[in-house]
Amino acid sequence: MKKLLLYGCLFLCCTHTIKGQNGNRAVITYIAEIPIIIESGLYIDTLVNGKTLHTISGRISIALAPRKIAILSDQYFKIANPINSQQLPGIEYRYFINDTLRNHWFSLPHRKTDITKFPYAGLLADTSIRTNEKLVIQFRYKRNQKMIQQTVFSRPELLPSIFSYRQKEQFDSLDNRIQSKAVKDSKALLAGFDTLKESRLTILPGKHPEFLFKKHSLNKDSCIQFRLRKVSNKENTAWNLTGHLLTLNTITANTAYILEVKYLGMDACNTYRIQALPFWYQTAWAMILFMILGMIALVGLPYSFYTYKLRKEKQKRARVQEQLKTVQSQLNPHFVYNALSSIEGLVTNKENERANEYLAVFSDIMRDTLKNSGVLFISLSQDIEMLEKYIRIEQLRFDFKYTIDIDPLLDPGAIEFPPMLLQPSIENAVRHGISGLGSEGVISIFFHKKEKALEIIIKDNGIKRDSKIKEGHGYGMKFTNERINNLRKLYKKEKIDYQLIHSENGTMVTFFFENWIQ
User: Fold this and answer.
1) Which of 17, 320, 401, 425 is most buried when burial is the number of CB atoms within 10 A of its CB?
2) Are strands 255-263 and 245-247 parallel, antiparallel or unpaired?
3) pLDDT averaged over the chain?
4) Is the pLDDT of residue 111 over 50?
5) What fold does the segment set 162-280 form as a domain?
6) Does the global pTM surpass 0.90?
7) Which CA distances in Å does 210 have to 160, 182, 197, 242?
8) How far, in Å, CA of 104 to CA of 102, rounded?
9) Could you say which architecture CATH assigns to the domain 290-513?
10) Which one is predicted more confidently, 287 or 474?
């Protein structure tokens, strides 16, 4: 009857064993001649050779199992029927790790209070096991030293290894069926996965690796720790927990990584090197191409801008030059008109000899004017010569005096000058200034050198009565202003000033050409 009651209690204990988690430690009920309770971390949920329990974690605690209380356990093993509990006081135990004895034979402990918590009926061992070590616990009768039970706990060097892998797009994922199958069994190669045969893996640019680990009969699925770092980063990153399916979504192209994986509670780890290939624009030849293009752009863009600016400047200069030529050509009809008026006046006064002389010099001036009509500059000496011819023919009609004073430091033959630029000012001095003074009229022209500047002054002692001429609005002055404005556009460094001053003693016109003389 007592024997039946004992087996009933054990049956009750076994039927109340459930699958659950006790924090990070697992509770294992081990039913043999001496029932025990084991607290461990990660472990293999099958017995090796029918008796040996493999634990992956280093810490293990062993206690006597109570007989009349059901213990909620994560795992249940039964290899033999328990002996009668009344025999327990006559039993002693010891344990050793490998060949090192940790304690001599001791009587089984007996805990009378709060046997609902670990160590339940009494603590037998609480120790650490290093990798590849074995803890052996033995039970025997005190009276005859007959061995009753020997239980072995082993800690093998177990490392997670990648069984297969695939390369996927960033937002691609396995469906639930494949995920469930991957967690359940990783021995079969899933569709889309390739076997990983070495510890190096090359990933295509823009892809992300997904790994399946080799499955062991462990009590937890999420029992693998991993950390991923760039090869260039020597600092260790934090360990992360994963199951037997691992997806690395943080992989970036053109980067080398180190992936380390281990089981919970283990120090040793497996190491994999992952090389993410670069996109085409990250390759060495692309970088060289970009550098070449950058150098071409660095040199070519300023050059293109310079040539564009130069071309625009040339076009602008061409337009200004055309405008200069247009204004210059407009001077000819104006000059011809005034000259013909002078000839008409001589003919009307029956001064035929003077008219003939006027025509001869006038034709000479017209020939020089036509010859210079297509050029923007002639030598200053040529322009002075043309001015003297014009002044002499005007003397034939108005009989005035003139002087031309040239600075001895000047070389008129080496200085370029716009043709007929001074002629309208001299014409105004003659026709609107001294024309009524006869021999009392005087025109003075001065050419001065002031460092690199050329200064020209035209003076007359006449009084301007025409308001347009006094205000500088006559045709000749208008053409002069237009030509000077166009010259300023062409020669911005050579500042050109033009002044017209009227007084009671006459009129003074000043031309100032800065930086004109080399």
Assistant:
1) 425
2) unpaired
3) 82
4) yes
5) Immunoglobulin-like (2.60.40)
6) no
7) 15, 11, 15, 12
8) 7
9) 2-Layer Sandwich (3.30)
10) 287
